[in-house]
Amino acid sequence: MSLETRYNLKSPGVKRLMREALELANPTEEYHVCPLEDNLFEWHFTVRGPSETEFEGGYYHGRILLPPQYPMQPPNIILLTPNGRFEVNKKICLSISGFHPETWQPSWSIRTALLALIAFMPSKGAGTIGSLDYTPEERQLLAKKSKSWECPTCGKIADTLVSAEKTPVLTQEENSMLQTITLKTEEDKSEKAPPAEEGDEAETVKSDISQDLRQRNVPSTSQMQTQVVDDILRTSIERSNRDKFWKVIISIIVALIALLVLRRVLFT
Q1: Disordered: where is this region (predicted)?
Q2: Disulfide: which of 18, 32, 60, 243 matches 27 by Cβ 3.0-4.6 Å?
Q3: Active centre residues (catalytic)
Q4: Count of C-beta atoms within a 10 Å radius of residue 142
């Protein structure tokens, strides 16, 4: 069945997905994603584990389920490869997924969702839906095993990134989002409490109190994601306000010119 008979090619969502499929046709160093041959609203992706983390060297495969209202509504993301950070075969909770439609922006894309997923992998799960808290050693072992993992639909996932091109230049919104996520992840790592000295009860009590206070002040993953979205929203709103201002100015100028021309025609 052809695309013309299966989908409404006049639909904004279908047009958007077809354009994104064309833009993302070639794999990059970090990810590869494409729609299924028989379903434009389900995509399979492979991402490379972020470097200098316990996921380095791993390949992680998953599904992106897009609603008919895309891009006005966010996609759902499901990991299929065991990874120790997210549960497999379960929709995961991120600020760019279907769990948070209130924070989704239509200007974001499938590429934005993949970049956010990669950036969030080293962050703390903090009990969010679909998150896991494996040890670094367990995640490293899963990263090694992932190299031979195969998808029943796509085959061996590591092969999709072998002849990859360089990652395209990030947009301003993507760069801002990834920088914020990176800063939050580094804060998580720096706030780990040092172990108390054995045999010293007073120091142990101090350490426990200090650790408890730090844990209370550590932002949850949901808070981290909300902060990321807030930063991007603020930038988008400021840009939108500037655009509206100049549109009004241009409209006024055009109207004045039209009046002058009309006056010249009528009174000459």
Answers
A1: 181-224
A2: 32
A3: 93
A4: 21
Residues 6+ apart with CB under 8 A from 126: 220, 221, 222
Largest CA distance in the chain: 102
Burial (CB count <10 Å: 0-12, 13-18, 19+), residue 255? exposed
Percentage of the chain beyond pLDDT 90 is: 42
* pLDDT at 166 (0 to 100): 58
This prediction's pTM: 0.65
Higher pLDDT, 105 or 266: 105
Report strand pairing: 59-65 vs 39-48: antiparallel
CB-CB contact of 74 with 47 (8 Å):
no
Token representation of residue 130: 């679909």
Q: What does each C-alpha distance from 215 to 15, 147, 192, 198, 211 come to in angstroms? A: 46, 35, 9, 22, 6
**Dihedral sign of CA atoms 230, 233, 238, 239 in order:** positive
Alpha carbon 213 to its chain centroid, in Å, reads: 30
pLDDT of 208 > 70? The answer is no
User: What pLDDT is stored for residue 181 in this prediction?
Assistant: 53
Lowest-pLDDT range of 24-33, 61-70, 94-103: 94-103
Q: Decide which of 58 and 1 is more confident.
A: 58
Helix/strand/coil for 258: helix
Please answer whether residues 62 and 79 qualify as being in contact, where contact means their C-beta atoms are separated by less than 8 angstroms. yes
C-alpha–C-alpha distance, residues 170 and 30, integer Å: 13
Strands (DSSP E) along the chain, which ranges?
Answer: 31-36, 39-48, 59-65, 76-79, 150-151, 155-156
